[in-house]
């Protein structure tokens, strides 16, 4: 891990990462209540780790995702996604008010799409995603 990413992740945890991860953990616990919603709980746990320590990682579309992911995302938005997106939005406002927190506010807003549609995406290291983009350009 790069030292800059380490510093950014530590500051992120202090300013908003802990609260975001806690929100995703609550969504995961609620999802684990029913057997049918266990995949949502797994996705919420994955996102909790990403919300807690995001710098140095990014999201990429999962090539094996299909129609089930799209249907699951619709259910997720109704049940938990819009609450988590609202949490990202609300936490970004005080970050934007402070001068130092503006980059973290933008990072919070960039997480809203994945909080709304987590199924069909995976969290990968930034280097891995950049390498995949370069390989796609060759074709």
Provide a descriptive summary of the structure in words.
The chain is mainly alpha-helical and 139 residues long. It has one domain. Helix content is 73%, strand content 7%. It has 6 helices and 2 strands. It has a two-stranded antiparallel sheet. The longest helix has 31 residues, at 67-97. It is globular. The protein starts with a helix and ends with a helix. The mean pLDDT is 90.
What string, H for helix and E for strand, traces the elements in order? HHEHHHEH
Q: Indicate the multimeric state.
A: single chain
The overall strand count is 2
Low-confidence stretches: none
The main sheet comes to: 2 strands, antiparallel
Q: What portion of residues is helical?
A: over 70%
Mean pLDDT: 90
Number of domains: 1
Quickly count the helices: 6
Q: Rg, please? A: 15 Å
Query: What is the strand content?
Result: 5-15%
Write out the strand line-up for the largest beta sheet, numbering strands in chain order. Answer: 1-2
Principal-axes shape call = globular
Distance between the termini: 30 Å
The structure class reads: mainly alpha
Protein name: YccF domain-containing protein
Keywords: Membrane, Transmembrane, Transmembrane helix
Transmembrane segments: 7-26, 32-53, 65-85, 91-109
Domain Inner membrane component: 7-57, 71-120
């Amino acid at each position: 891990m790069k030292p800059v990413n380490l510093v950014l992740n530590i500051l992120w945890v202090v300013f908003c990462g802990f609260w975001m991860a806690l929100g995703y953990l609550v969504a995961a616990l609620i999802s684990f209540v029913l057997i049918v919603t266990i995949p949502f709980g797994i996705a919420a746990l994955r996102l909790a780790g990403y919300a807690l320590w995001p710098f140095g990682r990014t999201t990429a579309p999962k090539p094996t995702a299909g129609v089930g992911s799209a249907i699951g995302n619709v259910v997720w938005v109704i049940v938990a996604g819009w609450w988590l997106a609202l949490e990202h939005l609300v936490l970004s406002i005080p970050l934007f008010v402070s001068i130092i927190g503006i980059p973290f506010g933008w990072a919070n807003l960039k997480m809203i799409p994945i909080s709304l549609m987590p199924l069909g995406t995976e969290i990968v290291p930034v280097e891995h995603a950049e390498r995949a983009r370069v390989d796609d350009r060759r074709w």
